[in-house]
Design brief:
Helix content is 25%, strand content 27%. By secondary structure, it is of the alpha/beta class. Helix 5 links the parallel strand 10 and strand 11. It is globular, with a radius of gyration of 20 Å.
Amino acid sequence: MQCLWLENLKLSYRDNVPVPTPHPGEVLVRVRLAGICSTDLEMVQGYYPFIGIPGHEFVGNVVDGPTDSNWIGSRVVGEINITCGECEACRAGRNTHCERRTVLGILNHHGVFAEYLTLPLENLHRVPDSIPDEAAVFTEPLAAALEIQQQISVHPTDRVLVIGAGRLGQLIAQTLALTGCDLKVVVRRYRQIELLEAYQIQSLAPDEVKPQKWDVVVEATGSPQGLILARQAVRPRGTLVLKSTYHGDTQFNFSSIVVDEITLVGSRCGPFQPALRLLETGQIDPTPMIETSYPLSDGIAAFERAAQPGVFKILLKPPVP
């Protein structure tokens, strides 16, 4: 099959990789559409020591699995953490922190930049017919945006600042806007402002951010500078939500966190079913973020485009069988 292969920090295109064989409890999924996100770009920079097929945002069809399964042919999206179900974390309901987990396209499990992938059946969610592939492929990052509201309470009276208006930051802002909070988003480019204005979300330039005035600050820039601005913005006893992952170490003054009694919240994967409901009802429409799509065979060019400043979502299309 065709795929993109990451090894020694170098991405290459291959067309001779065997179709994966599902293990017991797994299904084989044919990828219809896959999305490139910032984590994928960071993988090429060495965010995780990974060898294999990267990628974790997808929509596809189940083509093989248990013989008694009624999932064959279903259009699906899938949660990215493959867990054991037996360790202490899993038994305590913290399955996304499974002690033996693998992660689709990130940690010891081939990902979605290929014609086919495998996932446990329990990881799959059926996609309603009314949701087009171009929206369904955003389910995973939209779920990650919703995780913030699983972790903290956001009230209509809260002053909330999102720093970063890129691929994930846009989805975070759109979901937070549904709470009715006093929301502002820090932007650096006009295109970011245009996308936010469609949701009546106000934007700020970095130098317009008032220090220590925000009840909740979400950092989603992926840059150390964004983290510094986020720390300056949050008020004493406020909450700082960290959505970025960084390649390498990041310096941070933790003494001020103690003095100002700041609550730090790390946030990553989130709930798929609420994300699918928002897409189905049209409360969230991520498709304006799509820049363009590339055939999987042009995946190297797609990555180069996705890495350019200001570019939003680049999609990959495997060949139709």
